[in-house]
Amino acid sequence: MLIRTARGQAGMTLIESLIAIVVMALGILGIVGIQMRTLVETQTSNSRAQAIRLIDNLSERVRLNPSASTASVNANYITAFGDTPASTSCATGCTAANLAAYDRGAWKRLVQSTLPLGDAAVFFAADETDTGNRRQLGVMVSWRENEKVRATDSAADTAAYKQPFTVTGASNVSCPANRICHLQYIPLANRCLPYLLSGSADPNFFCPQ
């Protein structure tokens, strides 16, 4: 009787050990899953912070352009997703329009090198239809990152999730598929005013400090 009882207890101890190992393994897998999700969310937050800094960089470039709100100048800031502006140089001096084109190219390359598969679109605000009186630019920065997608999400759910990043109206700019976007508007202003003493065909500019 004593020998049979010992063998039975030994068998039960083995089963209990296996159950304990399985429970511990499930707990470890749960902790790893939480850590991985936390890491993804941290990376997303870091990328969004970088996108905000990049937009601030462009805003500062626009602010330093003496004639940024002039129609012939601000059009040179416009760029679409997928565009790669040609490299230009202002080493020997630039007009306000050339400076805008230079800043657009330099800034877009900065976006591409800073964010994972980074891209950006710069466009006129949809509700500003007066070409001679535009006061802001829309800037949408996008990048590729893996985010957790719920199995129950439909195409309509995904479209609703991205709705805040869809710009309606004349601009018709929306967040590209399978990307994360950050949308922000930056002001346009003139630091230099036209001085038309020689006529509109040959304007000079007065730039108060």
Descriptive labels:
single chain, 209 residues, alpha+beta, three-stranded antiparallel beta sheet, two-stranded antiparallel ribbon, 5 strands
Describe this structure in words.
- With 209 residues, the chain is of the alpha+beta class.
- It has one domain (51-206).
- Helix content is 45%, strand content 13%.
- It is built from four helices and five strands.
- The strands form two sheets. The protein has a three-stranded antiparallel beta sheet with strand order 1-2-3, covered by helices on one side. A two-stranded antiparallel ribbon has the order 4-5.
- The protein is elongated.
- The chain starts with a helix and ends with a strand.
Low-confidence parts:
none
Q: What series of H and E elements makes up the topology?
A: HHHEEHEEE
Oligomeric state of the chains in view: single chain
Number of strands: 5
Report strand order across the widest sheet: 1-2-3
| End-to-end separation | 104 Å
Estimate the strand proportion: 5-15%
Q: Helices and strands: which structural class?
A: alpha+beta
The shape, in one word, is: elongated
Helix content: 40-55%
Question: Could you give the topology of this structure?
Answer:
Layout (H helix, E strand, L loop, with lengths): L1 H63 L6 H4 L21 H19 L4 E6 L11 E8 L11 H8 L17 E8 L5 E3 L8 E3 L3
Antiparallel strand pairs: 1-2, 2-3, 4-5
Helix pairs in contact: 1-3
Quick structural overview:
The chain is an alpha+beta fold and 209 residues long. The chain has one domain (51-206). Helix content is 45%, strand content 13%.
